[in-house]
Design a protein that fits this description.
The protein has about 290 residues and is of the alpha+beta class. A five-stranded mixed beta sheet has the order 2-3-1-4-5, with helices on both faces. Helix 1 runs antiparallel to helix 2 and helix 12 packs across helix 13. The longest helix has 23 residues. The C terminus is likely disordered.
Length: about 290
Amino acid sequence: MARPLRICVPGGLYHVLARGNARELIYRDDADCELFLGLLDQTHERYGWIFHAYCLMGNHYHLLVETPQPNLPRAMRQLNGLYARRFNLRHRRCGHVFQARYRAILVEKESHLLAACRYIVRNPVRANICGDPGDYRWSSYRATAGLAAPPRFLATEFVLAQLASDRKRARPRYRQFVAGDADDTLLEQVRGERLGSEGFLRESFGLEPPIAEIARSEVEPLPPDLAEIFARELSLPVLVAYRRYGYSIRQIAGHLACHYSTVSRRLRREEEAERAMRECKTWHRPPYCS
């Protein structure tokens, strides 16, 4: 039986949830949490994801992520797969780390982004781990509230801009907003893995619900040949083939008739070049929310 279609759209905002197999712990200590945050940073770099909120709980995690490219399944396969391998190696175990499929709820950004952020960072409060979200280390709350330095992958600007035109005023308003519990039952509003108004799929993405179950092979277009990519992408061909079209490093190495490690090194160089270009473009970025 075909599985329900992942609604993969450019610019989609998703509330992503994944649980440990048989509800077992996926974070046994602080080192596991640090490892996972490092992989979020890598996902941000390689797939261009924009993280608006996150919370790592003992046996599950929540992410609020925006995907400029429609690459949710590909990046999640990399994120969960790589973490599972490293978790098993570190704890000398084998077998599944995550339970079944992750859940990805497409969120209407204009109306529900703040509500989803609040729901996510209030998880430790609902679980009676702490009385205040600021007391919990492994969520995005402290960074967004100005209580800790944000990790590189976390984008706090858009969330804060919904509350005030400058950080100084936005951060206390964010803390006050999260203190309310109005969104603690937010997931009950999800319909068909979508959170938002009836018409937001149509208005934002041109999709007409209901979307029937459909095999993934029927909705994911075939990528262009590697020869075409390398002929077209003169500056960052390995990065484009790997990140945008999902080719593996081994497939790219076969096309170039070189060793796997050679392509891996070239991918890192192209990522560094892209990062440098991005920093150059944002060097003279206008002031916050001006």
